[in-house]
Amino acid sequence: MSSLRDDEISQKYFYAGCFGLPWLWIVHAMNYKTKSKKSSGALLTQEGNQPEDLTQQECDRAEKQWVDRCRSSAIVVSIAWLAWVLVVQVFLTDIFPTELFVRTAEQGEYTGW
Amino acid sequence: MPFQNDYRRQHDDENENQGASDHEAIVEAAEPSVETNGETFIDEESVEEEFEYDYAMSISELLYSTSSFYAIVVPVTCTMVLAALAVVFINNEDTVEQGAQQMAQAYQILKIDSESSVGENIGFALANGLIMVSVICLMTFVIVMLYRFECMKCLIGYMMLCSTTLLGFLGGHMYWVAIQIYRFPVDKLSYFLVLWNFAAVGVLAIFFGRGVSKGITQGYLISTSVILAWHLDYFDEYTTWTLLFMLALYDLCAVLTPCGPLKALVNLMSRDDAPEMPGLLYEAELPPEARRPGRAKSSKDTSPSINNRMAEGVDGTIEVPLAIARVYNLPVLSIPSESETILGTFQASAKSSNAPLLRTDESNGVNIPENPTPAQLNSNVVIRLPQQGGRIEKTKRSGQIIFIERDRHGAPKRVLNVDRLGRVFAESTEDFENGETSNTIRLGLGDFIFYSVLVAKAAQYSFTTFVACVLVILAGLGGTLVLLSVFHQALPALPISICLGIFFYFVTRLFVEPWVENMLMKPYYV
After folding, report:
1. Which UniProt keywords apply (chain B) (predicted)?
2. Is B192 within 8 Å of chain A by CB?
């Protein structure tokens, strides 16, 4: 993992987040936003021993693309989850069975006292 | 128990005795006499200079200790406070009783109950503590053996499993208890989704680190300590205090005695080629101006005293990956033994196919493949650097081997690293300098945990004992850091703080609090 480029890591994190890990997308997007933009490596070739800036730009572009996908997916999933929470809370016992909840509501809560 | 309760001064790129060795090197370099204008000065001046240097060295050590203390005190305090809050507010009488029963069934060989006398209970608690510490010692030896024989996949896999269990199951239990106590209407889907995200991202952050900001990683390490401290606090009073005392003694013996497992682990981890072992240490950043005594201030320093830099041989030869040799068109002299299987296989298959793929360096008699595979590009070859040209220096950064290209004057030009496909990438030296001069101090996660256990137990009694224990633990930690800068070797972080904590807990509980209550009950003025 330590030998992967930044864009490859972003790609792997995006695919890993598809397994129900929106928090990973959020954390990775936060990291991309806060990290300093440093030259993570220009490719050297045998001919002329000159760095190929185009390859470096492609790496940065690819990384930004995957991070944008992570950010967009995190926003979509977060909105979907908040909508689910609102639906569950509003239609608490009307639709959903009590077994859906971690803690079942006590009957005493509905006496008004 | 997967966490170690020792404090070691882990250097990023130096040995434990770096400060002492640098000091000795500098002292040895001091000329006994200096000639100026044909006159020779007597030794007394140089002796005074050495004395002044020693005096200045102790000041820098003190300043470094102070910076280290300020860097580590914030996370330690946060962990202790959070653990105390968790123990006090995410518990009620039923959960405490239930937890105590479960812990007693799981860990107590000799049962402690209220019907026995105080002396008997203390004896039983000491015996139980001895058994638990023995198991911890045995597990530590197993870890040392795995590390010694570089079974890193097994070791890291086990630690990842422990982290996942801790963050997922124990953290989930804590979350479940909070839901029950505060009656949060949480559905099971949200509950398991939050737990799955918390545990999976935590393991990634702690063991991989890349792509996740350092603050998140540190937060997860603190969460790990808080969750484990919350569970360990379910031990009864006798077991908790005796276990803490026995762990302090174990830490003392394990780190300082020659046969101690933690001393062996520290020595193994201090080697230049030691693999990184994530998940055990909390790393705190020091300010850039806080320099470790004896460390070179400039990253351009080409002093050979920095141990992690493997300089070239006297005949200008160095081992570099084949990819770098091809990029710079450097002549290959020979192939090391560890690369012969990778490069040798290609030679055999190419010979059998009668294809003219090999480019033979006739002057050196070494066969280099024309179109090497990624594995061949990553394998090392011995090359000779040009006598009048630049240099290539092999060094280590964050456990990864990198190469620094320097010009003929020794100034670094760029940093080279080879990826898994055998491609050579260059980084600017500014980024390398920033990474090289990063100052960090590391504290074992076990120290966080047992400080938190002590403070949380004190918080269960009263706020006064909680505050007293927090302050003395921080004082003990500061004292340990001062001793560390004096002795220049790995020291245990638990003994001073834990012993002070236990002492002041009982003093506060038995004397200070009753005295304060009496003072408040009987005013001195009319």
Report:
1. Endoplasmic reticulum, Golgi apparatus, Hydrolase, Membrane, Notch signaling pathway, Protease, Transmembrane, Transmembrane helix
2. no
Interface contact B275, partner A, CB < 8 A = no
A84 and B398 within 8 Å at the Cβ level: the answer is: no
Q: Mind listing the pLDDT tens digit for each residue in B265-296?
A: 888 887 767 777 777 788 888 877 666 655 44
Per residue in B143-195, pLDDT (tens digit) is: 999 988 888 889 999 999 999 999 999 999 999 999 999 988 888 999 999 99
Which among A20, A34, A46 has CB closest to B193?
Answer: A20
At position B109, the amino acid (one-letter code) is: I
Question: Does residue B176 belong to the interface with chain A, where contact is any CB pair within 8 Å?
Answer: yes
Using alpha carbons, select from B280, B394, B380, B453 the residue that is nearest to residue B13. Answer: B394
Q: What is the pTM of this model?
A: 0.72
Which residues in chain B touch residue A81, judged by CB atoms under 8 angstroms apart? 190, 193
Per DSSP, the three-state class of A78 is helix
Cα separation, A105 vs B463, in Å, equals: 34
Give the integer Cα–Cα distance in Å for B194 and B124.
41
CA atoms within 13 A on the CB side of B442: 20
Contact B420 A9 (CB under 8 A): no
Q: B471: closest CA among B448, B455, B459, B491?
A: B455
Burial pattern B64-102, b for ≥16 Cβ within 10 A else e, equals bbebbbebbeebbbbbbbbbbebbeebbeeeeeeebbee
Residue boundaries of the structural domains of chain A: 6-37+55-100
Rounded (10°) angle between helices B237-256 and B118-148: 40
Residue B473, token pair as written in the block: 């633990």
Of the residues B173, B212, B371, B428, the best mutation for testing chain A's interface (the one with the most A CB atoms within 10 Å of its CB) is B212
Task: Report CA-CA distances (Å) from B517 to B32, B430, B507.
Answer: 67, 61, 15
- What would the two tokens of residue B513 be? 């609090």
DSSP bridge pairs for B440: B285
Contacts with B254 (C-beta within 8 Å, 6 or more apart), sequence order: B6, B137, B140, B260, B261, B262, B263, B492
Contact flag B400-A39 (C-beta cutoff 8 Å): no
Question: Residue B28 corresponds to which tokens in the numbers above?
Answer: 């040895």
Q: What is the pLDDT of residues B413-467, one digit of tens each?
A: 777 877 777 778 776 555 454 444 457 788 888 999 999 999 999 999 999 999 9
Q: A3 vs B420: CB contact, 8 Å cut-off?
A: yes
- Minimal CA separation from B212 to chain A, in Å: 6
Task: Give Cβ neighbours of residue B504 (< 8 Å, ≥ 6 apart).
Answer: B468, B469, B472
A39 closest CB neighbour out of B205, B208, B428? B428
**Structure tokens given for B221:** 């390490």
Sheet-wide strand order for B332-334: B317-321, B380-384, B332-334
